[in-house]
């Protein structure tokens, strides 16, 4: 009897152990789990990538950057961004926009299947939008909630058509429809989208999950039914590593084929002949903001003199080791909307001094700073958050640059909390700041007079800019959209509510046996992976 009880306990223990590590949402996808760690990369048939330790693979509730990029291989949106951030067809082949730009009707691609073989339908699109809209507030949030903030409702018109109604016609941004579409048939309710933390990804994308070990790796194989055909690289293994530093260490040890750089010192990898570096412009934009509530800074000529007096390339070379891209405006230089003709400000001390002299600021030796007719010194405070060491260094350099043209800069180094308080209360002259810009190119948050103080903290109020922003937001075709953004940029560089410093760059370091058209982007480091190949 005791022996039977003992054997029963052993049997139950084995049953329990079998279930440890299994997925909570087992019906999401049947995935083979292997306890064998994948072998060292064999570039003849598989691409091994690092995947930093994550909370979830659910693309809707994920906040991990490496999972976000991996999800781009597995899921499709209605539309996708090309290398110039211009929306292109994906799950939707075409779209029509109503006269008031508030109603969008998408025609879906025929014969698309989910990775489990079930057909993709318009119901999946509506389900995903409804789920994202539910997560706009409260504890259920998503990194994609921003994309559906402006959506009023989604309606299935026919089997292959979806109508999306926006809350305003001033939202004609096709970029809003690039969020990943989920399979409705894998969730019992919309709420389940936010509780499926252990979801195994199931999409319609170029690659599908074939094996998954929660603590070790995720294996992807090319989707044989994919609408764009088969990639040269058929197998990808995402090796789970503790952190970004370990990802780079794994690259150095030749255990993975690529890794994303962490800092700006990636030139050290150029010394290794077996590695290649692919640099790209991120969406991280650094700027100098002028407080329009201050009478002194309401003078456009003074703002322009300051712009000419700052050597941005020196900031980039000395602080970012050359890895940033100068831009007068908060539009990515790689974007199809960026107007190369609207570049204006180069480092020009003579021009800065000339502008100031014409505005009656004069030198009074031996003081290095200019004064006006009343003897008032040309002096301003520059607000910067003390936790950002790179920005502090930039502030010091800007102080020295502007001293050369006769402007005194007093740096106010404050905590992040104090920095925000002073921004929102308007208690500053100039501010060094930065934005993580969306690929949705709507700049109303910072430039429209109706924006709240948390966004338009410089107090900029321009009816002309308001009109330009609304015109851009309602432009439905490529020609009008490009023209509208060109006008915005022309106004920005002339009026200078903000002076753009640069976009930060990042890079992918890759083993030289991976070749082809490799063109990573900040919104998708696997951009153009269909054109990658082993050499």
Automatic annotation (TrEMBL):
Residues 86-451 form the Solute-binding protein family domain. The keyword rRNA processing does not apply. Keywords: Signal, Transport. GO terms for molecular function: peptide transmembrane transporter activity. It comes from the Bacteria. Pfam families: SBP_bac_5. The keyword Transport applies. GO terms for biological process: peptide transport. Signal peptide: none annotated. GO terms for cellular component: ATP-binding cassette (ABC) transporter complex; periplasmic space. Belongs to the bacterial solute-binding protein 5 family. This is Peptide/nickel transport system substrate-binding protein.
